[in-house]
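question for whoever is on the cluster today: can someone run the full assembly for these? two chains, 893 residues total. i dont have access anymore since they changed the login thing
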Amino acid sequence: MKVTINGKTIEVPEGTTVLEAARMLNIPIPTLCHHPKLTPFGGCRMCIVEIKGAPRPLTSCTTPVSEGMEVITSSPELEDLRKTVLELILSDHPNDCMICEKAGDCTLQELAYFYGISPYNPPLLKGDKGGFLGERRVYGKRDGNPFIERDMEKCILCGRCVKVCDEVQGVEAIDFAYRGFKSKICPTFEKDLDCEFCGQCVAVCPTGALTGKMWALRGRQKDIKEVDTTCSYCGTGCNITLHVRRNEVIRVTSREDTWNEGWLCVKGRFGYSFINNPDRLKKPLIRIKDRSNCSSGSNGLNKVFKEVSWDEALDYTSQRLKEIKEKYGHDSIAGLSSARCTNEENYLFQKFMRAAVGTNNVDHCARL
Amino acid sequence: MTNSIREIEGMEVIFIIGSNTKETHPVIANRMLKAIRKGSKLIVADPRKIPLVKFSEIFLRLKPGTDVALVNGIAHVILKEGLDNKEFIKERTDGFDKWKKSLETFTPENASKITGVPKEDIIKAALLYGGSRKAGIFYTMGVTQHTHGTDNVNAIANLALLTGNIGREHTGINPLRGQNNVQGACDAGCLPNVYPGYQRVDMPMVKRKFEEAWNASLSDKEGLKSTEMMLSAAEGKLKALYIMGENPILTEPNVGHTREALKKLEFLLVQDIFLTETAALADVVLPATCFAEKTGTFINTERKVQLVRKAVDPPGDAKEDMWIISELSNRMGYAMKYSSSEDVFEELGSLWSALSGITYNRIRNNGIHWPCPTKDHPGTEYLYKAGFPRGRVSFTTVNYAPPAEPTDKDYPFVLTTGRNLFQYHGGSMTRRVAPIEAHAGEPYIEMNAEDAHRLGVKNGEPVKVKSRRGEIEIKVRITDRVSGGILFLPMHYREAAANVITTDALDPFAKTPEFKVCAVKIETF
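^ ran it for u. tokens below:
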């Protein structure tokens, strides 16, 4: 199917939307509610375009291409309409970007920047000459869950969270409630969230309405190093991105173009703080108290172990292993490796057991 | 997995047996939901009404430990209805007639009697699975953690052979691996009977190959499996144990037994990131690094090799496991000199052709599925395209036998164990994550409302759960996820450790413990 957008022609399969066709041509159309992995909604009206023969602008995200269609994505009228939409949204927005977790990574902020809209513009403050002034939505917080911060005053009702929860996660924990100005997105009976806490909604939220509770005040986009790696929980192997600030993982996300499409689970997305847990072992330890009468648990640790240098720990260990090997034979020693560790570590571990110790007594937790 | 995760989208039928995919592999479940939205049909076989049941066409609620009867019953119907793939059976399998005969008694009626699943549902499932040539089977520990785990797996394999649902895109057998790199740990040779790449230690040629590559003299005697190590330690035969990143006290069956076994060792070395229950018993504890502090590769459940990148420095004096192992080896008189993890990976690839074609550079952006024998090979998304490695595959006759510990008058409940969505395995990691602990930090046992009513316990009230091995105190969670007579206990909580209760009965071949069935009683306060 042939379509011409801003004078450029492209052939696309039937069912392709105007927005998709434009993106294939690298023509930018601003959007807020659209998400490439969710069904189109046509809610925010930012993606409106002029189509030859249509009496008024149409939303490009919901309009399928038809043969020979001619599209204009930008004109003074369209940009005016888009600006009005943004002004309307911002007239009912806290506009507290300076303390918002999402600043620097917020679609609304980005569009306001490109359209030059500030809540402190005189027209907006006065509410005349094209600006808007009026009632603001104020919500009491109902937010006892430990994972997801819901700042609903920043919600622009784009509906991405509702869609992702239903279409991707199959949970339907949230939906639109009420009508008109009172519309809001909430769990059943406006209770606190009690869901799988996968955080897919957080990942698709275009503003700071949904963020991770544990992200608060740990750093935004500045001075963040992003490291792409592989999740260390279950065997699915989701591709994740660690956000690092001052040698600390402060956030985990997943890119949309990964094989897991950016989707994660509660453990992968929110279960990272064990990395910086103060209980982490930091020094080699050697037992100083007999094991036979000790119970498990970490009480009175310093009476049971002493901290030693690596040299001391390794010398002592190798000496003990050599003694036992000498006295009882190779097969009196065994090794349990770990499905948490890398291939390289596992390879070296079994090589150590087989070549250095001389036994095939090596296994890991595959059965458990 | 014989398939890749991508191929789930495109399966006509998804048959999940013994896997609570939505909680244990949530992102794979997302892919299944995507497939279902596009028209795939879902069959779920599980004793519990797990979250994916909501999306299923057919829910087969079998009694724990009756998987063989259910799968054989389905195969019986497929045969009877003539839905078997005759061409595939003739060309690629052996032993069909003998196996066919063994199915005669598994009529839907008999299967229904054993499993408790209505016979109509068994027939419906058979028509759905047998009627498709693009059907995938998915399972996890719900199938394997039984004294008949190997039988269960064989029964599933028979089903795939019967319909020819293997060796093509979008159809195959897919065990979902429960740990990030359990596939890689197996591939890298951390198994007592094989070197890296599943090359047998008892074959002289293989042994010679590794002796030459490693410049060492090696043993041709098969080693001990993890569950056997504990038995050997308890008997006083095993003297020293080196544990890297595991917590067997919580994860092996019968906690008391494991603890006593470890205490008997002359030397216990534990290398971990936390002072786990196991590390607390060690003679030497070495501080290691977690995944965010090192570079290397993991292999996920679909055999895809993916990069792990260092993001932060380890705390204190903690060292990378590779460094620790090498230093130890050098001191033991066997030199290990590697300049990077990539060096090690290349050595592994030189010894196993399935990884030979993979380099760090090739998997910089996207992982590659093994086998990938050459540098220009794209990797292998699904296995057995060109046939089975040994030419033809045999049907394996499997007969139903009940679990090792049936319920009786004294221990009338069946207890089954597993994971929940929020916690992970022994909990060393997730239990140290504050929001997860705040939300799911308390142990519980799932009980059906009728059982709770009969026992006179309310939701959230504590009970004693007793088996022949031990007892724990735990709060009851009343839910229709379990049916009458069945209890579910998550394995994550050390203060109410499931493996205080579980049986140490093992599958005779795989030596996998029967975590999914044991007999218990409930005492109220």
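summary bc i know u wont read the tokens: Chain A has a mean pLDDT of 92. Chain A touches chain B through 118 residues (CB under 8 Å).
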